[in-house]
Amino acid sequence: MSMYGTACSFFRKRSLHSALPRFVRISIGASCFLAFSLFAQTVETVKVVSKPVSRSIKLPGELLPFESVEVFARVSGFVDSIRVDRGSVVKKGDLLAEISAPELKAQRAEAHSKAEALKAQQNEAALRVSTEQATLARMQEAAKTPGAIAQNDIDVARKNIEAAQAGLRAIG
């Protein structure tokens, strides 16, 4: 309660009211009414409701990555597909992109055909060794008969076997 309200209620008491002259009582009453009307305000009230506070502020800024890595392809070629987006978390061994390399495919086919040719040469050299060994065995069997095969032919057959074995070792 204000100071004027207290004074007004003090002077309204019955014992003081009768003791004061009438014009004093009127002036005190008028001043109390005037003071009360000057300081009296109407207040509008609302019910308090709990709500989350949300405030957004737009500020300029720059985001930097916590960690960055440069990635290089092992071969040159054309990118067919990209399997991850910028900012994705990846682990060692994850497929990031698919690259098609026509030159690499041609080189691979060429290497495959060379490997097949080398296998064929090895088989041919092994066959030659076994053929020369079979020839030497027949010559030695025929040499048991006196005068059928000359010793020089048997020596040539042995040298042919050694040459075939050296060729086989060189290939493979």
Description:
The protein is mainly α and 172 residues long. Among the domains are: 3-39, no CATH class; 108-171. It has five helices and two strands, in the order H-H-H-E-E-H-H. The protein has helices at 3-11, 14-19, 22-39, 102-142, 151-171; strands at residues 78-82, 97-100. It has a two-stranded antiparallel ribbon. Helix 1 runs antiparallel to helix 3. The longest helix has 41 residues, at 102-142. Mean pLDDT is 80; it is low at 1-5.
Tags for this model:
single chain, 172 residues, mainly alpha, two-stranded antiparallel ribbon, 5 helices, disordered N terminus
How much is the radius of gyration in Å?
58 Å
Question: Largest beta sheet: what is the strand line-up?
Answer: 1-2
Encode the helix/strand succession as letters.
Answer: HHHEEHH
Kindly state the number of beta strands. Answer: 2
Q: Give the fraction of residues assigned to helices.
A: 55-70%
Mean pLDDT: 80
Structural class: mainly alpha
The biggest beta sheet reads: 2 strands, antiparallel
State the gist of this model.
This protein is mainly alpha-helical. Helix content is 55%, strand content 5%.
